[in-house]
Each structure stands twice: as structure tokens, then as C-alpha cells.
Amino acid sequence: MAVADLREPGPVAAAVAGVDAVVHQAAMVGLGSADMSDLPEYVGCNDLGTAVLLAALVRAGVRRLVLASSMVIYGEGAYRCPHCGPVRPRPRDPADLVAGRFEPRCPACAAALVPGLVAEDAPPDPRNGYAATKLAQEQLVSVWAQATGARAVALRYHNVYGPGMPRDTPYCGVAAIFRSALARGEPPRVFEDGAQRRDFVHVSDVARANLAALAATAGGAGGAGGAGTGLAAYNICSGHPATVGELAATIAAAAGGPAPVVTGEFRAGDVRHVVAAPDRAARELGFVARVAPAEGFGEFATAALR
After folding, report:
1. CA 270 to CA 108: how far, in whole Å?
2. At what angle do helices 9-16 and 49-60 cross, to 10 degrees?
3. How far is CA 15 from its chain centroid?
4. Do 300 and 175 touch, CB atoms closer than 8 A?
5. What is the pLDDT of residue 128?
6. CA-CA-CA-CA torsion sign (45, 46, 47, 48)
7. Please, is 287 exposed, middle or buried when counting C-beta atoms within 10 Å of its C-beta (0-12, 13-18, 19+)?
8. What pLDDT, in 10s, does the model give residues 159-184?
9. Contact 273, 77 (CB under 8 A)
10. pLDDT given at position 179
11. How far apart are alpha carbons 13 and 68 in whole angstroms?
């Protein structure tokens, strides 16, 4: 297996020579620094790297691509105000977060909002540097597909977890952060009040989704990622949302470790609820997750990490 920097045209050209399709997983991940000091590195790794890859695909005549995208492009998830109907909440006020008011309010009437399922046609609303680069990746791939007649699929991963995740890094996701704490004999530290909702999807299901998307790019015109039509995007999720507090409690109990501690801390740029609608992936890719969170969390509590 060759290892190279995606921003280097020579190694990338060598890697794609003679291949039928590419599954593009490479990215710098995480929220990024609040002061945006690392934004050039995010843009360089994620967007310049993707542009170098796409240029190499044109020269090599490769016409099939699966892109690892992310649910972070949505910003907050889908919400409904009981008075105003569907709304897009504004970024949360730091003063509210400091005071422990974590739920977003209606931007029109300030009423409490009801979270729902976010579908692929929701308008993008990236709220940190990493999210902006993932959206830019999708746009670059869409332009490439339309210009070349290629077939392209973006898989918007929700919160991926499972065996082999890296330990002790701020970029590994909350599940591995909780695992690392338990391995040290410490309680998992749950930010906010633990009631923020996510869809946690097992890595084995993510692998199956990639195979399904790859098969879709080999189909006839009009299917997923139809030739020359741009980019087809899909939520890749379990379809069984859980709170961050539930995740921490299940992993701690299964590992026989100390119970989680809810800290009230928060991170700038975090969103409150992002819960995915899985219907399009089931309908068009034939992908339905097999690992329910209750099963997957228990396994993950003792699985090997990198």
C-alpha cells in the first residue's frame, strides 16, 4: 500500500492509473480551531487535495467516484416551530450556552423548537471550517462529474464509530474519546447536558454503504450519480438516533467503568441535534444499516482501538 500526500500530483496520478473507480476517503477531520488559525491547512488538505485528485482522474480517464462527505454540511438539523413551521435556527449564542440554555430557539418568535429528520435536500449551512471544506468537496466533485460525464456519489456520514478507531486524538469522534477515558479509569465527560442527539453509525455499515455506492456508479444512466448529472448525495446513518449521554452511559456500563459525568461544557461551532433521514439511501442504493446502536455500543466498549 502506497502512502502519499493527496496534494502531490505525481503520486496521485500514479495511484489512479489503470483503475476503474476511486473511493475518496482522505480528509483532515475535526471541527478545527475556534480562531480559524488552522483553516489554511483544512482547505489545503480537503479542497486542494480533492482538486488534485479530480484533475488526475480527468487525465487518467476515470469516470466513477465515491466521496466520503459528512453530515456537518447541514449545520443544525431539521427543526419545526409550533407557530412558524419549519425553520433554520441561527447559530447558538455563547451567552446562552454559558447559562446552560442549549436548545436552539425559533429565529422568528423565540419559541422552543421540535427537532426532526434532516434529509439530503436540506440547504447546506456549514458552521465551522471543516464543514465548509466538506461542502466545497461536494461542489468540486459535482462540477467534475458534470464537466466529464462521470458518475459520482457523496456519502454524508453521520457519527461513525467502531473497532479500529484512533484513540487519544481530538479528531477521533466522541465515541473514541469516551473509550479512551474509560481505558484510563476515568469517567466519560459529557458536554452540554448530554441530551444532544446524533445518529451513530457502525463502521461495518459505512463499509457496506461504500460498496453499494460503488455499485451504483457502475449502473446505467439515470440511477444514483447518473452520468453527467452532477452528484448524488446520501445520508449514511443507522436510522436509530441516540443522545450523547446515552452513548456514554452504554459504553461505560458495558466496559465496567465509572459512570459518565455531565459537565455543562460546550465547544464553539457544535450543533445541538443532527438526526438523519435514511430513506433515500435505502430507496436508491439499497442500503439499510444492520448494526443498531444498542448492539454496536456494547461491542465498541471493549473493541480494539488504534
Report:
1. 22
2. 50
3. 25
4. yes
5. 86
6. positive
7. buried
8. 898 888 877 665 567 888 898 889 88
9. yes
10. 87
11. 20
Alpha carbons 226 and 217: distance in angstroms, whole number: 7
Compute φ and ψ for 41, nearest 5 degrees. -70, -40
Q: Which residues contact 164 (CB under 8 A, 6 or more apart)?
A: 203, 303, 304, 305, 306
pLDDT digits (tens, 9 = 90+) for 99-122: 999 999 999 999 999 999 999 999
Pairing of strands 114-118, 275-276: parallel
Going from the C-alpha of 165 to that of each of 86, 134, 178, the distances in angstroms are 36, 21, 12
Can you give the chain as a three-state secondary structure string? Answer: CCCCCCCCHHHHHHHHCCCCCEEECCCCCCCCCCCCCCHHHHHHHHHHHHHHHHHHHHHHCCCEEEEEEEHHHHCCCEEEECCCEEECCCCCCHHHHHCCCCCCECCCCCCECEEEEECCCCCCCCCCHHHHHHHHHHHHHHHHHHHHCCEEEEEEECEEECCCCCCCCCCCCHHHHHHHHHHCCCCCEECCCCCCEECEEEHHHHHHHHHHHHHHHCCCCCCCCCCCCCEEEEEECCCCCEEHHHHHHHHHHHHCCCCCEECCCCCCCCCCCCEECCHHHHHHHCCCCCCCHHHHHHHHCCCCCC
Listed in sequence order, the residues at least 6 apart from 36 whose beta carbon sits closer than 8 Å to its beta carbon are 129
| Cα–Cα dist 257/187, whole Å | 7
Distance (Å, whole) CA 211 – CA 155: 11
Tens digits of residue pLDDT in 200-259: 999 999 999 999 999 999 975 445 767 767 899 999 999 999 999 999 999 999 989 999
Which cell numbers hold the place of 75? 449545520
